[in-house]
Specification:
Length: 279
C-alpha cells in the first residue's frame, strides 16, 4: 500500500488485479472504502487503482488555509500519481464529487485519460443542491462533524428502500462514520470546492460553468446514474452526457446517489461492458 510524493503532497493508493489501470475517485469526504463493494467486481477486468484524495484517509491532510482544495487540484494530484507510477494512460472513474475530479482530469490531462466514467455526477448545481451543501457548512459551524451531519448526509445520499433493509442501514452507518472521521475544517473546504465547481460565485460571473468546459472532452465517456437518485437527479447526468460528444448515458434501475453501494453488481457490469468495448 504505497504512498506517492507528488504535486506537493502525499497520496495513498493501492492496486488490485492486472491490465489497464482504472483509477477510482471516491465521493465527498470518503476514502477508498467508498468502493469496497464494487471494486472486487472490477479487478478481473482491469487493474483497479484505489486512492485516498488529498485531505482524506491516509493521504496527507494539507492545511486548507494554505492549500485551496478544488477538483482541479485533486485531478492534478492523480495525474501526477499516474506519471509517478509509470502509467502512460489511465481510465478514470469518479462518483459524485469524484465525478467532478474525473471531469477535471479529462479536461486538464487529455493525453493521459484514455476514457472517463462519471457516476452520479454533476457539472453544475441547481439551487436545491447549492442549499444542501451550504446547509452542511452551517451544521458543521454550529455543532461540528456529529451525528446530525451524518444523518443529514445519509438522508441525502441513500434511498428509502435501501435504508429500510438491515444490510442497507449497516452500510449507511459505515459510510457515516467514514465521513465523520473528517476534520471539520477540511470537510468545509471540500464543500467549498463543490460550490466553486458548480456555481458562479461573486467575482466569477464571467467564468464558464464546467458544463461548457467539458465540451472539449474527446475521450470515450460513460455517464451512469441511479434512476432513484433524488439528491442529484438523473437530469444532471444527462447534462454531462449531452455536453460530451459521443458520451454514453445509462441508468441503474433502483439505484440511488451511490449505485456502487446500493447496486454494486449492476453498476460494475455496466462499467466492465464499457471498458471491454475500448479494446
Amino acid at each position: 500500500m504505497p504512498t506517492a510524493s507528488v504535486n506537493g503532497t502525499e497520496i495513498w493508493y493501492e492496486t488490485q488485479g492486472s491490465g489497464h489501470p482504472l483509477m477510482l475517485f471516491p465521493g465527498l469526504g470518503m476514502d477508498h472504502r467508498y468502493y469496497r463493494l464494487g471494486e472486487p467486481l472490477l479487478r478481473d477486468s482491469c487493474m483497479t487503482v484505489l486512492v485516498d484524495p488529498r485531505g482524506v484517509g491516509r493521504s496527507r491532510k494539507d492545511d486548507p488555509t494554505e492549500v485551496l482544495y478544488t477538483s482541479e487540484l485533486w485531478a492534478d494530484d492523480f495525474a501526477a500519481l499516474a506519471s509517478e507510477a509509470g502509467w502512460e494512460s489511465v481510465d478514470v472513474l469518479g462518483s459524485s464529487l469524484g465525478g467532478s475530479t474525473a471531469q477535471a482530469m479529462a479536461v486538464r490531462h487529455p493525453d493521459l485519460v484514455r476514457s472517463m466514467i462519471v457516476v452520479g455526477g454533476f457539472s453544475e448545481l441547481d439551487r436545491a443542491m447549492e442549499m444542501n451543501f451550504s446547509l452542511r457548512k452551517k451544521i458543521i459551524a454550529k455543532i461540528g462533524m456529529g451525528e446530525e451531519l451524518a444523518d443529514f448526509m445519509g438522508l441525502s445520499t441513500m434511498t428509502r428502500e435501501f435504508m429500510d433493509t438491515e444490510e442497507g442501514l449497516a452500510i449507511m452507518r459505515a459510510n457515516q462514520e467514514n465521513v465523520r472521521a473528517n476534520d471539520p475544517g477540511l470537510y468545509t473546504a471540500f464543500l467549498d470546492s463543490i460550490l466553486r465547481w458548480g456555481c458562479r460565485l461573486p467575482g466569477q460571473e464571467d467564468e464558464p460553468l464546467w458544463t461548457e468546459k467539458i465540451r472539449s472532452v474527446s475521450c470515450p465517456t460513460l455517464v451512469l446514474t441511479g434512476d432513484n437518485d433524488y439528491f442529484i437527479p438523473a437530469k444532471f447526468s444527462k447534462i454531462i452526457a449531452d455536453a460530451i460528444p459521443g458520451a454514453i448515458y445509462a441508468e441503474i434501475p433502483g439505484g440511488g446517489h451511490i449505485p456502487f453501494i446500493e447496486k454494486p453488481v449492476e453498476t460494475a457490469e455496466a462499467v466492465v461492458s464499457f471498458l471491454e468495448g475500448l479494446d
